[in-house]
Amino acid sequence: MLNEKSPKEIREAIRKGDYRGDTANLAPGRVQANLVILKKDLALEFLSFCTVNPTPCPVIEVTTPGDPVPRISAPDADIRTDLGHYRVFRHGKLVEECSDIKGYWNEDMVAFLIGCSYSFEWILRSAEIPLRHVEEDCTVPVYKTNIKLNQVGIFKGTMAVSMRPLTPKDAIRAIQITSRYPMVHGAPVHMGFPDQIGIDINKPDFGNMVTIKEGELPVFWGCGVTPQIVAMDSGVEFMITHSAGRMFLTDLYVKDFGI
Amino acid sequence: MLNEKSPKEIREAIRKGDYRGDTANLAPGRVQANLVILKKDLALEFLSFCTVNPTPCPVIEVTTPGDPVPRISAPDADIRTDLGHYRVFRHGKLVEECSDIKGYWNEDMVAFLIGCSYSFEWILRSAEIPLRHVEEDCTVPVYKTNIKLNQVGIFKGTMAVSMRPLTPKDAIRAIQITSRYPMVHGAPVHMGFPDQIGIDINKPDFGNMVTIKEGELPVFWGCGVTPQIVAMDSGVEFMITHSAGRMFLTDLYVKDFGI
Protein backbone atom coordinates (compact mmCIF):
# COMPACT_ATOMS: atom_id res chain seq x y z
CA MET A 1 0.00 0.00 0.00
CA LEU A 2 1.38 3.40 -1.02
CA ASN A 3 0.04 5.02 2.16
CA GLU A 4 2.31 2.81 4.26
CA LYS A 5 5.44 3.96 2.43
CA SER A 6 7.92 6.66 3.47
CA PRO A 7 8.01 10.05 1.72
CA LYS A 8 11.25 8.94 0.02
CA GLU A 9 9.66 5.75 -1.34
CA ILE A 10 6.60 7.65 -2.56
CA ARG A 11 8.77 10.29 -4.25
CA GLU A 12 10.62 7.46 -6.02
CA ALA A 13 7.33 5.93 -7.18
CA ILE A 14 6.25 9.34 -8.48
CA ARG A 15 9.61 9.89 -10.20
CA LYS A 16 9.31 6.53 -11.96
CA GLY A 17 5.79 7.39 -13.08
CA ASP A 18 4.21 4.67 -10.94
CA TYR A 19 1.97 7.18 -9.16
CA ARG A 20 0.58 10.53 -10.25
CA GLY A 21 -2.51 10.91 -8.05
CA ASP A 22 -3.70 13.03 -5.15
CA THR A 23 -1.44 12.86 -2.11
CA ALA A 24 -4.12 13.44 0.57
CA ASN A 25 -3.92 9.88 1.74
CA LEU A 26 -0.13 9.46 1.77
CA ALA A 27 2.89 9.78 4.10
CA PRO A 28 1.11 9.93 7.47
CA GLY A 29 2.62 12.47 9.86
CA ARG A 30 4.80 14.19 7.27
CA VAL A 31 4.64 17.76 5.98
CA GLN A 32 3.22 18.11 2.48
CA ALA A 33 3.99 21.24 0.48
CA ASN A 34 2.70 23.37 -2.36
CA LEU A 35 5.28 24.24 -5.01
CA VAL A 36 5.91 27.58 -6.69
CA ILE A 37 8.94 28.06 -8.95
CA LEU A 38 9.83 31.59 -10.06
CA LYS A 39 12.81 33.33 -11.58
CA LYS A 40 15.38 34.70 -9.15
CA ASP A 41 14.60 38.37 -9.88
CA LEU A 42 11.10 38.00 -8.35
CA ALA A 43 12.09 35.70 -5.50
CA LEU A 44 12.63 38.32 -2.80
CA GLU A 45 9.40 40.13 -3.58
CA PHE A 46 7.47 36.85 -3.62
CA LEU A 47 9.02 35.67 -0.37
CA SER A 48 8.23 39.04 1.23
CA PHE A 49 4.64 38.64 0.07
CA CYS A 50 4.44 35.18 1.68
CA THR A 51 6.01 36.52 4.87
CA VAL A 52 3.28 39.12 5.39
CA ASN A 53 0.50 36.64 4.50
CA PRO A 54 1.53 33.72 6.70
CA THR A 55 -1.89 32.07 7.07
CA PRO A 56 -2.29 31.06 3.41
CA CYS A 57 1.47 31.23 2.59
CA PRO A 58 3.58 29.57 5.33
CA VAL A 59 6.98 29.05 3.69
CA ILE A 60 8.64 25.74 4.58
CA GLU A 61 11.76 26.17 2.47
CA VAL A 62 13.23 28.25 -0.35
CA THR A 63 15.81 26.52 -2.56
CA THR A 64 19.11 28.13 -3.55
CA PRO A 65 18.81 29.60 -7.08
CA GLY A 66 19.54 26.87 -9.61
CA ASP A 67 19.54 24.07 -7.03
CA PRO A 68 16.61 21.65 -7.52
CA VAL A 69 17.17 19.98 -4.14
CA PRO A 70 15.26 21.14 -1.03
CA ARG A 71 18.26 20.65 1.26
CA ILE A 72 16.36 21.00 4.53
CA SER A 73 13.01 19.36 3.95
CA ALA A 74 14.02 16.49 1.60
CA PRO A 75 17.77 16.38 0.89
CA ASP A 76 17.58 13.46 -1.53
CA ALA A 77 14.63 14.78 -3.50
CA ASP A 78 14.55 16.61 -6.82
CA ILE A 79 11.69 19.05 -7.14
CA ARG A 80 11.92 18.80 -10.97
CA THR A 81 10.79 15.16 -11.00
CA ASP A 82 9.30 14.28 -7.63
CA LEU A 83 5.81 15.77 -7.96
CA GLY A 84 3.07 13.90 -9.76
CA HIS A 85 1.98 16.74 -12.00
CA TYR A 86 3.24 20.25 -12.84
CA ARG A 87 1.71 23.29 -14.49
CA VAL A 88 3.85 25.77 -16.45
CA PHE A 89 2.71 29.40 -16.82
CA ARG A 90 4.01 32.20 -19.06
CA HIS A 91 2.70 35.73 -18.44
CA GLY A 92 -0.03 34.26 -16.23
CA LYS A 93 -1.29 31.78 -18.86
CA LEU A 94 -1.07 28.01 -18.54
CA VAL A 95 1.18 26.78 -21.35
CA GLU A 96 1.88 23.18 -20.42
CA GLU A 97 1.00 20.44 -17.97
CA CYS A 98 3.65 17.79 -17.49
CA SER A 99 5.22 15.32 -15.07
CA ASP A 100 8.87 16.40 -15.40
CA ILE A 101 10.19 19.95 -15.60
CA LYS A 102 13.89 19.26 -16.22
CA GLY A 103 13.58 20.92 -19.63
CA TYR A 104 12.48 24.18 -18.03
CA TRP A 105 14.99 24.26 -15.18
CA ASN A 106 18.00 26.60 -15.25
CA GLU A 107 20.34 28.51 -12.95
CA ASP A 108 17.77 31.27 -12.52
CA MET A 109 15.10 29.12 -10.88
CA VAL A 110 14.03 29.34 -7.23
CA ALA A 111 11.55 26.89 -5.71
CA PHE A 112 9.26 27.80 -2.83
CA LEU A 113 7.74 25.05 -0.69
CA ILE A 114 4.61 26.29 1.06
CA GLY A 115 2.84 24.36 3.81
CA CYS A 116 -0.26 22.35 2.78
CA SER A 117 -3.30 21.51 4.89
CA TYR A 118 -2.96 17.87 3.84
CA SER A 119 -0.19 17.85 6.47
CA PHE A 120 -2.65 18.16 9.38
CA GLU A 121 -5.23 15.78 7.97
CA TRP A 122 -3.56 12.77 9.53
CA ILE A 123 -3.76 14.46 12.90
CA LEU A 124 -7.46 15.18 12.37
CA ARG A 125 -8.04 11.59 11.30
CA SER A 126 -6.14 10.27 14.30
CA ALA A 127 -8.62 12.31 16.37
CA GLU A 128 -11.37 10.43 14.50
CA ILE A 129 -12.49 13.49 12.57
CA PRO A 130 -13.62 12.15 9.20
CA LEU A 131 -12.62 14.05 6.05
CA ARG A 132 -15.23 14.08 3.33
CA HIS A 133 -12.82 14.39 0.36
CA VAL A 134 -10.98 11.31 1.63
CA GLU A 135 -14.28 9.44 2.12
CA GLU A 136 -15.39 10.47 -1.37
CA ASP A 137 -11.93 9.78 -2.85
CA CYS A 138 -11.44 13.16 -4.52
CA THR A 139 -9.39 16.34 -4.14
CA VAL A 140 -10.30 18.77 -1.36
CA PRO A 141 -12.44 21.65 -2.70
CA VAL A 142 -10.58 24.98 -2.91
CA TYR A 143 -12.22 28.38 -3.42
CA LYS A 144 -11.06 31.90 -4.17
CA THR A 145 -12.47 34.18 -1.46
CA ASN A 146 -12.87 37.95 -1.10
CA ILE A 147 -10.45 38.00 1.88
CA LYS A 148 -7.86 40.62 0.90
CA LEU A 149 -4.16 39.87 1.27
CA ASN A 150 -1.35 42.27 2.15
CA GLN A 151 0.23 43.54 -1.06
CA VAL A 152 3.98 43.45 -1.75
CA GLY A 153 5.12 44.88 -5.10
CA ILE A 154 3.30 43.15 -7.94
CA PHE A 155 1.90 40.48 -5.65
CA LYS A 156 -1.63 41.20 -4.44
CA GLY A 157 -5.01 39.53 -4.39
CA THR A 158 -7.33 37.49 -2.21
CA MET A 159 -7.00 34.32 -0.19
CA ALA A 160 -7.82 30.84 -1.47
CA VAL A 161 -9.24 28.41 1.08
CA SER A 162 -9.75 24.67 1.35
CA MET A 163 -13.08 23.47 2.73
CA ARG A 164 -13.98 20.52 4.92
CA PRO A 165 -17.60 19.94 6.07
CA LEU A 166 -17.66 18.99 9.74
CA THR A 167 -20.20 18.45 12.51
CA PRO A 168 -20.10 21.30 15.07
CA LYS A 169 -18.36 19.04 17.57
CA ASP A 170 -15.70 17.99 15.07
CA ALA A 171 -15.31 21.62 13.91
CA ILE A 172 -14.57 22.74 17.48
CA ARG A 173 -12.01 19.94 17.89
CA ALA A 174 -10.48 20.63 14.46
CA ILE A 175 -10.02 24.30 15.40
CA GLN A 176 -8.24 23.26 18.59
CA ILE A 177 -5.98 20.81 16.76
CA THR A 178 -5.07 22.89 13.72
CA SER A 179 -4.42 26.02 15.83
CA ARG A 180 -1.29 24.21 16.97
CA TYR A 181 0.12 24.00 13.42
CA PRO A 182 0.52 27.51 11.95
CA MET A 183 3.18 26.26 9.50
CA VAL A 184 0.49 24.28 7.70
CA HIS A 185 -2.17 27.05 7.80
CA GLY A 186 -3.16 26.79 11.46
CA ALA A 187 -6.75 27.48 12.52
CA PRO A 188 -9.58 27.95 10.02
CA VAL A 189 -10.19 31.45 8.68
CA HIS A 190 -13.96 31.02 8.43
CA MET A 191 -16.85 28.64 8.98
CA GLY A 192 -20.55 28.56 8.41
CA PHE A 193 -21.39 31.37 5.99
CA PRO A 194 -19.70 30.98 2.56
CA ASP A 195 -21.31 34.18 1.24
CA GLN A 196 -19.50 36.20 3.93
CA ILE A 197 -16.21 35.36 2.20
CA GLY A 198 -17.54 35.70 -1.34
CA ILE A 199 -17.88 31.99 -2.09
CA ASP A 200 -20.45 29.99 -4.03
CA ILE A 201 -20.14 26.79 -2.03
CA ASN A 202 -21.23 24.64 -4.97
CA LYS A 203 -18.50 25.95 -7.27
CA PRO A 204 -14.97 25.22 -6.06
CA ASP A 205 -12.25 26.87 -8.16
CA PHE A 206 -9.92 23.89 -7.68
CA GLY A 207 -10.44 20.31 -6.55
CA ASN A 208 -13.87 18.72 -6.31
CA MET A 209 -17.16 19.53 -4.63
CA VAL A 210 -17.89 17.24 -1.70
CA THR A 211 -21.16 16.44 0.06
CA ILE A 212 -22.14 18.77 2.91
CA LYS A 213 -24.60 16.89 5.09
CA GLU A 214 -27.50 18.39 7.02
CA GLY A 215 -26.19 19.75 10.33
CA GLU A 216 -22.60 20.19 9.16
CA LEU A 217 -20.67 23.45 8.97
CA PRO A 218 -18.41 24.16 6.01
CA VAL A 219 -15.04 24.98 7.63
CA PHE A 220 -12.45 26.94 5.63
CA TRP A 221 -8.67 26.91 6.04
CA GLY A 222 -6.13 29.15 4.30
CA CYS A 223 -4.78 27.31 1.25
CA GLY A 224 -1.25 27.19 -0.13
CA VAL A 225 -2.63 27.52 -3.66
CA THR A 226 -3.08 31.22 -2.79
CA PRO A 227 0.41 32.40 -3.80
CA GLN A 228 0.16 30.52 -7.11
CA ILE A 229 -3.09 32.28 -7.92
CA VAL A 230 -1.62 35.63 -6.91
CA ALA A 231 1.49 35.09 -9.08
CA MET A 232 -0.68 33.92 -11.99
CA ASP A 233 -3.01 36.92 -11.66
CA SER A 234 -0.04 39.29 -11.54
CA GLY A 235 1.05 37.87 -14.91
CA VAL A 236 4.59 36.90 -13.91
CA GLU A 237 6.72 36.12 -16.95
CA PHE A 238 7.42 32.54 -15.88
CA MET A 239 6.13 30.24 -13.14
CA ILE A 240 5.86 26.52 -12.51
CA THR A 241 3.51 25.07 -9.87
CA HIS A 242 2.25 21.67 -8.78
CA SER A 243 -1.26 20.64 -9.83
CA ALA A 244 -4.08 20.72 -7.26
CA GLY A 245 -3.81 17.88 -4.76
CA ARG A 246 -0.46 16.60 -6.14
CA MET A 247 1.75 17.92 -3.39
CA PHE A 248 5.46 17.64 -2.69
CA LEU A 249 6.09 15.14 0.10
CA THR A 250 8.82 16.33 2.45
CA ASP A 251 10.69 14.23 5.00
CA LEU A 252 9.69 16.66 7.77
CA TYR A 253 7.43 15.53 10.59
CA VAL A 254 4.28 17.57 11.22
CA LYS A 255 4.72 16.99 14.96
CA ASP A 256 7.96 18.99 14.86
CA PHE A 257 5.95 22.02 13.77
CA GLY A 258 3.41 21.82 16.63
CA ILE A 259 3.22 24.74 19.03
CA MET B 1 -17.04 52.27 39.12
CA LEU B 2 -17.80 48.84 40.56
CA ASN B 3 -16.00 47.15 37.66
CA GLU B 4 -12.73 48.76 38.71
CA LYS B 5 -12.95 47.33 42.23
CA SER B 6 -11.25 44.21 43.60
CA PRO B 7 -13.24 41.04 44.29
CA LYS B 8 -12.93 41.80 48.02
CA GLU B 9 -14.38 45.31 47.62
CA ILE B 10 -17.22 44.01 45.46
CA ARG B 11 -18.02 41.24 47.95
CA GLU B 12 -18.18 43.90 50.68
CA ALA B 13 -20.54 46.01 48.57
CA ILE B 14 -22.73 42.95 48.03
CA ARG B 15 -22.63 42.06 51.74
CA LYS B 16 -23.77 45.57 52.67
CA GLY B 17 -26.60 45.38 50.13
CA ASP B 18 -25.13 48.09 47.93
CA TYR B 19 -25.09 45.80 44.90
CA ARG B 20 -27.21 42.80 43.97
CA GLY B 21 -26.93 42.67 40.18
CA ASP B 22 -25.36 40.52 37.50
CA THR B 23 -21.60 40.04 37.93
CA ALA B 24 -20.72 39.64 34.21
CA ASN B 25 -19.07 43.01 34.07
CA LEU B 26 -17.11 42.83 37.35
CA ALA B 27 -13.69 41.85 38.71
CA PRO B 28 -11.69 41.65 35.47
CA GLY B 29 -9.31 38.70 35.33
CA ARG B 30 -10.72 36.92 38.38
CA VAL B 31 -12.45 33.56 38.60
CA GLN B 32 -16.21 33.76 39.14
CA ALA B 33 -18.02 30.74 40.56
CA ASN B 34 -21.42 29.11 40.70
CA LEU B 35 -22.56 28.10 44.19
CA VAL B 36 -24.21 24.87 45.31
CA ILE B 37 -24.71 24.17 49.01
CA LEU B 38 -25.78 20.66 50.05
CA LYS B 39 -25.89 18.65 53.22
CA LYS B 40 -22.76 16.69 54.09
CA ASP B 41 -24.34 13.28 53.49
CA LEU B 42 -24.68 14.02 49.75
CA ALA B 43 -21.39 15.86 49.33
CA LEU B 44 -19.23 12.94 48.22
CA GLU B 45 -21.78 11.72 45.68
CA PHE B 46 -22.25 15.24 44.32
CA LEU B 47 -18.51 15.85 44.09
CA SER B 48 -18.07 12.52 42.32
CA PHE B 49 -20.76 13.56 39.87
CA CYS B 50 -18.94 16.84 39.16
CA THR B 51 -15.66 14.98 38.76
CA VAL B 52 -16.96 12.79 35.95
CA ASN B 53 -18.70 15.73 34.24
CA PRO B 54 -15.85 18.25 34.23
CA THR B 55 -16.97 20.35 31.27
CA PRO B 56 -20.13 21.74 32.87
CA CYS B 57 -19.02 21.10 36.48
CA PRO B 58 -15.39 22.16 37.05
CA VAL B 59 -15.01 22.30 40.83
CA ILE B 60 -12.91 25.23 42.07
CA GLU B 61 -13.26 24.54 45.78
CA VAL B 62 -15.27 22.53 48.31
CA THR B 63 -15.64 24.04 51.77
CA THR B 64 -15.11 22.06 54.96
CA PRO B 65 -18.50 20.98 56.39
CA GLY B 66 -19.89 23.79 58.54
CA ASP B 67 -17.24 26.33 57.44
CA PRO B 68 -18.72 29.20 55.39
CA VAL B 69 -15.29 30.44 54.29
CA PRO B 70 -13.75 29.29 50.98
CA ARG B 71 -10.24 29.09 52.44
CA ILE B 72 -8.42 28.74 49.11
CA SER B 73 -10.32 30.92 46.69
CA ALA B 74 -11.38 33.81 48.97
CA PRO B 75 -10.12 33.41 52.55
CA ASP B 76 -11.85 36.54 53.88
CA ALA B 77 -15.17 35.87 52.23
CA ASP B 78 -18.35 34.39 53.70
CA ILE B 79 -20.42 32.45 51.20
CA ARG B 80 -23.55 33.02 53.38
CA THR B 81 -23.57 36.77 52.72
CA ASP B 82 -21.29 37.55 49.79
CA LEU B 83 -23.50 36.65 46.86
CA GLY B 84 -26.12 39.06 45.58
CA HIS B 85 -29.00 36.65 45.56
CA TYR B 86 -29.65 33.08 46.76
CA ARG B 87 -32.29 30.47 46.05
CA VAL B 88 -33.29 27.89 48.66
CA PHE B 89 -34.74 24.52 47.59
CA ARG B 90 -36.45 21.78 49.58
CA HIS B 91 -37.12 18.45 47.87
CA GLY B 92 -36.33 20.09 44.53
CA LYS B 93 -38.82 22.95 44.99
CA LEU B 94 -37.84 26.60 45.33
CA VAL B 95 -38.97 27.76 48.78
CA GLU B 96 -37.24 31.09 49.20
CA GLU B 97 -35.17 33.71 47.44
CA CYS B 98 -33.03 35.88 49.68
CA SER B 99 -29.81 37.85 50.01
CA ASP B 100 -28.46 36.25 53.19
CA ILE B 101 -28.53 32.58 54.14
CA LYS B 102 -27.15 32.75 57.68
CA GLY B 103 -30.47 31.49 59.01
CA TYR B 104 -30.15 28.28 56.98
CA TRP B 105 -26.49 27.58 57.68
CA ASN B 106 -25.43 24.82 60.08
CA GLU B 107 -22.61 22.38 60.79
CA ASP B 108 -23.93 20.02 58.13
CA MET B 109 -23.51 22.37 55.17
CA VAL B 110 -20.94 21.97 52.40
CA ALA B 111 -20.48 24.62 49.70
CA PHE B 112 -19.27 23.80 46.20
CA LEU B 113 -17.79 26.53 44.06
CA ILE B 114 -18.02 25.63 40.37
CA GLY B 115 -16.24 27.55 37.61
CA CYS B 116 -18.33 30.07 35.67
CA SER B 117 -17.89 31.16 32.05
CA TYR B 118 -18.05 34.80 33.19
CA SER B 119 -14.43 34.16 34.20
CA PHE B 120 -13.20 33.96 30.61
CA GLU B 121 -15.31 36.82 29.32
CA TRP B 122 -12.67 39.38 30.21
CA ILE B 123 -10.16 37.44 28.17
CA LEU B 124 -12.56 37.35 25.23
CA ARG B 125 -13.20 41.07 25.57
CA SER B 126 -9.48 41.82 25.80
CA ALA B 127 -9.24 39.98 22.45
CA GLU B 128 -11.92 42.42 21.22
CA ILE B 129 -14.59 39.76 20.96
CA PRO B 130 -17.85 41.55 21.83
CA LEU B 131 -20.34 39.82 24.12
CA ARG B 132 -23.96 40.43 23.27
CA HIS B 133 -25.36 40.05 26.82
CA VAL B 134 -22.89 42.68 28.01
CA GLU B 135 -23.80 44.98 25.10
CA GLU B 136 -27.49 44.45 25.85
CA ASP B 137 -26.96 44.74 29.62
CA CYS B 138 -28.66 41.49 30.59
CA THR B 139 -27.83 38.01 31.89
CA VAL B 140 -26.26 35.50 29.48
CA PRO B 141 -28.92 33.11 28.10
CA VAL B 142 -28.69 29.57 29.51
CA TYR B 143 -30.47 26.52 28.08
CA LYS B 144 -31.09 22.96 29.16
CA THR B 145 -29.81 20.67 26.38
CA ASN B 146 -30.28 17.01 25.53
CA ILE B 147 -26.56 16.30 26.08
CA LYS B 148 -26.51 13.42 28.57
CA LEU B 149 -24.26 13.58 31.63
CA ASN B 150 -22.51 10.71 33.37
CA GLN B 151 -24.67 9.50 36.27
CA VAL B 152 -23.40 9.10 39.82
CA GLY B 153 -25.91 7.83 42.39
CA ILE B 154 -28.98 10.07 42.44
CA PHE B 155 -27.30 12.70 40.29
CA LYS B 156 -28.11 12.42 36.59
CA GLY B 157 -29.49 14.53 33.80
CA THR B 158 -28.44 16.70 30.88
CA MET B 159 -26.05 19.59 30.41
CA ALA B 160 -27.02 23.26 30.64
CA VAL B 161 -25.15 25.62 28.34
CA SER B 162 -24.60 29.36 28.08
CA MET B 163 -24.87 30.92 24.62
CA ARG B 164 -22.97 33.77 22.97
CA PRO B 165 -23.71 34.77 19.37
CA LEU B 166 -20.43 35.38 17.51
CA THR B 167 -19.23 36.05 13.99
CA PRO B 168 -17.44 33.01 12.53
CA LYS B 169 -14.07 34.73 12.94
CA ASP B 170 -14.74 35.59 16.57
CA ALA B 171 -16.11 32.08 17.18
CA ILE B 172 -12.86 30.52 15.91
CA ARG B 173 -10.81 32.85 18.12
CA ALA B 174 -13.10 32.24 21.12
CA ILE B 175 -12.64 28.48 20.73
CA GLN B 176 -8.87 28.94 20.72
CA ILE B 177 -8.95 31.17 23.78
CA THR B 178 -11.43 29.25 25.92
CA SER B 179 -9.78 25.89 25.15
CA ARG B 180 -6.99 27.09 27.41
CA TYR B 181 -9.30 27.41 30.45
CA PRO B 182 -10.89 24.04 31.23
CA MET B 183 -11.49 25.08 34.86
CA VAL B 184 -14.06 27.60 33.64
CA HIS B 185 -15.71 25.27 31.08
CA GLY B 186 -13.03 25.35 28.39
CA ALA B 187 -13.98 25.10 24.71
CA PRO B 188 -17.60 25.31 23.54
CA VAL B 189 -19.60 22.09 23.39
CA HIS B 190 -21.60 23.11 20.33
CA MET B 191 -22.18 25.83 17.78
CA GLY B 192 -24.49 26.54 14.91
CA PHE B 193 -27.40 24.11 15.18
CA PRO B 194 -29.43 24.56 18.41
CA ASP B 195 -31.85 21.77 17.43
CA GLN B 196 -28.97 19.26 17.45
CA ILE B 197 -28.70 19.74 21.21
CA GLY B 198 -32.43 19.95 21.85
CA ILE B 199 -32.67 23.71 22.26
CA ASP B 200 -35.30 26.23 21.20
CA ILE B 201 -32.93 29.16 20.73
CA ASN B 202 -35.65 31.71 21.48
CA LYS B 203 -36.48 30.22 24.87
CA PRO B 204 -33.61 30.29 27.34
CA ASP B 205 -34.31 28.45 30.60
CA PHE B 206 -32.29 31.00 32.60
CA GLY B 207 -31.03 34.50 31.87
CA ASN B 208 -32.26 36.56 28.95
CA MET B 209 -32.59 36.10 25.22
CA VAL B 210 -30.06 38.19 23.30
CA THR B 211 -30.07 39.32 19.67
CA ILE B 212 -28.48 36.91 17.18
CA LYS B 213 -27.52 38.94 14.12
CA GLU B 214 -27.53 37.72 10.52
CA GLY B 215 -24.26 35.92 9.86
CA GLU B 216 -23.57 35.02 13.49
CA LEU B 217 -23.27 31.54 14.95
CA PRO B 218 -24.78 30.76 18.35
CA VAL B 219 -21.87 29.28 20.33
CA PHE B 220 -22.61 27.15 23.40
CA TRP B 221 -20.39 26.56 26.42
CA GLY B 222 -20.99 24.13 29.29
CA CYS B 223 -22.63 26.02 32.15
CA GLY B 224 -22.06 25.74 35.89
CA VAL B 225 -25.80 25.93 36.48
CA THR B 226 -25.85 22.29 35.33
CA PRO B 227 -25.18 20.69 38.74
CA GLN B 228 -27.85 22.89 40.37
CA ILE B 229 -30.43 21.72 37.86
CA VAL B 230 -29.36 18.12 38.31
CA ALA B 231 -29.59 18.39 42.12
CA MET B 232 -32.96 20.14 41.85
CA ASP B 233 -34.31 17.50 39.44
CA SER B 234 -33.12 14.72 41.73
CA GLY B 235 -35.25 16.26 44.49
CA VAL B 236 -32.50 16.58 47.10
CA GLU B 237 -33.91 17.30 50.53
CA PHE B 238 -32.10 20.62 50.87
CA MET B 239 -30.04 22.83 48.56
CA ILE B 240 -29.03 26.47 48.32
CA THR B 241 -27.72 28.02 45.10
CA HIS B 242 -26.88 31.45 43.74
CA SER B 243 -29.36 33.09 41.35
CA ALA B 244 -28.55 33.19 37.62
CA GLY B 245 -25.83 35.70 36.82
CA ARG B 246 -25.17 36.62 40.48
CA MET B 247 -21.93 34.72 40.87
CA PHE B 248 -19.47 34.35 43.72
CA LEU B 249 -16.37 36.47 43.06
CA THR B 250 -13.19 34.66 44.11
CA ASP B 251 -9.77 36.23 44.57
CA LEU B 252 -8.26 33.73 42.12
CA TYR B 253 -6.79 34.91 38.83
CA VAL B 254 -8.12 33.31 35.65
CA LYS B 255 -4.60 33.46 34.15
CA ASP B 256 -3.40 31.02 36.82
CA PHE B 257 -5.81 28.44 35.39
CA GLY B 258 -4.57 28.75 31.81
CA ILE B 259 -3.06 25.68 30.18
Would you mind describing this structure in some detail?
2 copies of one chain form a homodimer. In chain A, a hairpin with a 2-residue loop joins strand 3 (86-90) and strand 4. The mean pLDDT of chain A is 94. The two termini of chain A are 31 Å apart. Chain A is built from 6 helices and 11 strands. In chain A, strands 1, 2, 3, 4, 5, 10 and 11 form a 7-stranded antiparallel sheet that branches. In chain A, strands 6-7-9-8 form a 4-stranded antiparallel sheet. The first copy, chain A, has 2 domains: 2-117 and 234-252, PSTPO5379-like (3-Layer(aba) Sandwich), CATH 3.40.1640; 118-222, PSTPO5379-like fold (2-Layer Sandwich). With 259 residues, chain A is an alpha+beta fold. Chain A has helices spanning 7-15, 40-51, 118-126, 132-135, 168-179, 226-233, and strands at residues 30-39, 59-62, 86-90, 93-98, 109-115, 142-148, 158-166, 190-191, 217-222, 238-242, 248-253. The interface between A and B is medium-sized, with 17 and 17 residues.
